[in-house]
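Lab manual, section 2.4: Encoding a predicted structure.

Procedure: take the sequence of the chain (346 residues), apply the prediction step described in section 2.3, and record the output as structure tokens. A sample record is shown.
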Amino acid sequence: MVKIDKIELPDFPLLLAPMEDVSDPPFRAVCKDKGADLMYTEFISSEGLIRDAIKSRKKLDIFEYERPVGIQIFGGDEESLSMAAKIVEVTNPDLLDINFGCPVKKVALKGAGAGVLKNLDLMVRLTSAVVKSTSLPVTVKTRLGWDESTKNIEEVAERLQDVGIKALAIHGRTRTQMYKGQADWELIGKVKNNPRITIPIFGNGDIDSAEKAVAYKNRYGVDGIMIGRAAIGYPWIFNEIKHFYKTGEHLPAPTIEDRIAVCKKHLQLSYEWKGPKVGIFEMRRHYTNYLKGMPGIKDYRYKLVTLGSLEEINEVLDEIAIKYKDYQFEKTAIELIDYHEKCPIN
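Recorded output:
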């Protein structure tokens, strides 16, 4: 068992990464169904919460079936983060996470997200301010450092643990790498195996298969793994990893009926939570991922992203299920998809 403060998670827990414009309640619901043990909201601006911005407030929506679930906030000002922490606490999540990892310019160059990696003393002060402002367990998501010459994650882990965080998730890239190149898990392993570190350490970056997840668990000793891009359109990856970890065997790949059923549930939840117009529009980004790799799917995909009613979209999905009922999927997890400008996985 892995514990974050009083939150009990299974041995080798699998976490769904906080992803901007992706990790909303509908997406979290299908990932929870398929084995995610701990999930986070999209990251929320501390300044937006204080201003009572509608979009920021909407991101605070959490549901009982999601638990345990964390709300993630970001910002570069102690007072704003403290106030945001108090607002978050009222919504009663299981934990509060601070984003020190988002690398996109509009966040990092304003001194928030991965921008805080340039000033470790500031990172410590911001974290301490949040810990002191809430009774919720506080966790942090960050990167290895700002660039190749400043990979200070070992010092970061020690100092943040000292001011009271209860777990640390590490994306194995620097800010300047964005999402390019391979994630460096060696440094993540060093943090986990540092005798001073007693909090859970979760690794993140490039996990796209059950084999890789288990191999990295065994090689680097992390307490759990956080999955982001590989779960987009493929929430089955969580149960596939769990099954392989326990048995050494692979689950059968989801059939077209499985894929369509989950896609339709995702669509329905999006429709209900966001409303007909926005729910249908924002679901369009997901169809390509659910149907990835299927031959001759282009025309159907075009229909899905142009139709405006729930009934019409479901009819097209039913057509796809019938046409491809005998199609054999060769891959388990989808290829990692880059969404550099959206900062989906920080």
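Check your result against the sample. The chain is about 40% helix and 15% strand.
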